[in-house]
Amino acid sequence: MSDEQKNEPEEELEVVHPPKNLKHLVFQASGGGSSQIDLEAIERAEHAMEKLSVSFNMWMEDEIDTLRKAHDGTKKGDMAGESRQALFRAAHDIRGEAGTLGFPLVGQAAGSLADLLCMLPEDASIPEALIDGHVQAICAMLRENASGDDNKTAVDLVNCLREAATRLLEAEGALDDQETEEPEESNAA
Q1: How many structural domains compose the chain?
Q2: Contact assessment for residue 126 and residue 79, using Cβ atoms and an 8 Å cutoff
């Protein structure tokens, strides 16, 4: 990945939660006729999804263990090179997977950490407390199953972390490159 690619902002994605009752959609799509639809197959698929969703917490825990290990690597005074890259990859992976696994707030906190690590040059100083705060918040939100906007404490925590990260990025000039310039107006009439 080139330096230019590392500094490009990532697009925000919208998480779409599939409906739990697939039969309803199938009947709508087919006009209500059940002669062409294998309802047993739909029921098996719904049952499989229920069984699979039990694994979501375990998968999320595995991702957070990876984040913790990467964070421990940076605590040894090595906040550059491979240690920093490992922490970035772990945060970036969580950002991408958390919404799918049912933890969108964890994804937002991980995204904030990933932005810090990606957008700031390696020689920029990132306060250890800010990194610790992100990692601890991610761990706490999973532990407390804080998955949605109904958890005011988790929402406030994510907002505070994102605000602190944004202030640091602004102070370091990392957001200056992200702004789009207004097109120049032509003087020709």
Answers
A1: 1
A2: yes
Tokens 């994804």: give the residue: 107
Domain residues for 69? 56-178
Q: Which residue has the higher pLDDT, 57 or 137?
A: 137
From CA 158, how far away is CA 163, in angstroms rounded? Answer: 8
Answer whether 67's CB lies under 8 Å from 87's CB. yes
CA-CA-CA-CA dihedral for 98, 87, 74, 58, to nearest 10: 40
- pTM above the 0.85 mark? no
Helix (H) or strand (E) holding 89: helix 81-98
C-alpha pair distances (Å), 116 with each of 91, 119, 128, 134: 10, 6, 12, 11
CA–CA gap between residue 139 and residue 103 (Å, rounded): 11
Work out the average pLDDT over 161-176.
93
Of 74, 189, 61, 67, nearest in space to 128 by CA: 74
Q: What is the CATH number of the domain that holds 115?
A: 1.20.120.160
Amino acid type, 167: R
Tokens 């990132």, residue?
Answer: 126
**What is the identity of the amino acid at 36?**
Q
In a domain, 47, yes or no: no
- The predicted model gives 118-130 an average pLDDT of 91
Q: Do 131 and 74 contact (CB within 8 A), yes or no?
A: yes
Best CA proximity match to 6, nearest among 90, 93, 121: 121
Band (170; pLDDT cuts 50, 70, 90): very high
